[in-house]
Amino acid sequence: MNDLANVPDLSGHQADEPKTLAEAAYRQLRRDIIEGVHRPGEKLRVEHLKDQYAVGAGTLREALQLLVTDALVVAQGQRGFRVAPISLDDFEDITRTRVLLETVALQQSIELGDDTWEANVVASFHMLSRAEEKLVDGTNASREEWELRNRAFHEVLISASTSRWLRHFQNILYLQSERYRRLSLFRQPISRDVHAEHQAIVDAALARNSKEAARILTEHVLRTLEAVRKLPAEMIS
What's the DSSP call for residue 14? Predict the structure, then answer.
C-alpha cells in the first residue's frame, strides 16, 4: 500500500496502526510473502487463507488487491491470485532504477538538509546499528526489526529531498527489493560488512559530500545485486 505519508518512524516501526481489517490482513500477508512463507508463484486460495488470517473472504480479497497494487501478488482473472514470481532480470531492473532515483534524492537531501536532518540521520543509523547487534540471536523478530530500521535509515537519508515523487518511487522500489534482499542478507553468499557500508554513507552525507555519498550508496545497493547473483538459480526463479 504505497501511501506517500505511510513511512516508518525513527524507531523503525510503522508510524500508524492498521485502520481496517483489510489493512491488517494486507500487512500480515505482505510480511509473509516477503519472508517466503508464501513462495513465488504459489496460488493464494481465499477459502484457505481467510481462516489463516482470521478475516472474511471479502476482506481477504481486498487485502490481496492491495498486494496486486504493490506488485507482490498477481491477479489471474477468474482463477484467483498467485504470489508474484521473482527473477534475476527483475531484480537487476529494480536495483538499477532504484540507484538512479535514490542517488538523486540523496544528493538533494545533502544539499538541502538542515541540522534536524543531520540529527535524524545520526539517530536512524544508531538505531539500525543497535538492531544489527541483535541479529546474532537469529530470530525472525530480530530480522524483522533490522529490516524495519534499515528501511527507516534509507528513508531518512533522502527525507530532505523536495521531490515527494522521488521519495515515493524510491519507497516502492525499496519494498520490491525486499524479497531479494532477504534471500541474500541472511545467507551471505558474498563477504561484506553492511555496517561499514552504512557508516561510509553517513560519513559522506554529514561531510556534505554529495558526489561521494552517491558513489558509496550506488556501490552499497549494487553489492546486494552481486550477492543475489551468487545464490543458487533455483532460489530466484
Answer: B
Q: How many alpha carbons fall within 13 Å on the CB side of residue 103?
A: 19
State pLDDT tens for residues 17-51.
778 899 999 999 998 998 888 999 999 999 999 99
Within 10 angstroms of residue 161's Cβ, the number of other Cβ atoms is 23
Residue range of the domain that includes 165: 88-235
Q: What string of DSSP letters covers 122-190?
A: HHHHHHHHHHHHGGGG--HHHHHHHHHHHHHHHHHHTTT-S-HHHHHHHHHHHHHHHHHHHHHHTT-SS
User: Nearest Cα to 207, choosing from 102, 113, 99, 104?
Assistant: 113
**Structural domain contains residue 1:** no
Does 125 lie in the same domain as 34?
Answer: no
Kindly state whether residue 184 falls inside one of the protein's structural domains.
yes
Domain count, the chain: 2
**Distance, CA of 180 to chain centre:** 10
Q: Which of 217, 6, 8 is nearest to 131 (CA)?
A: 8
**Same structural domain, 206 and 135:** yes
For residue 154, tell me if it sits in a domain: yes
At 156 the pLDDT is: 97
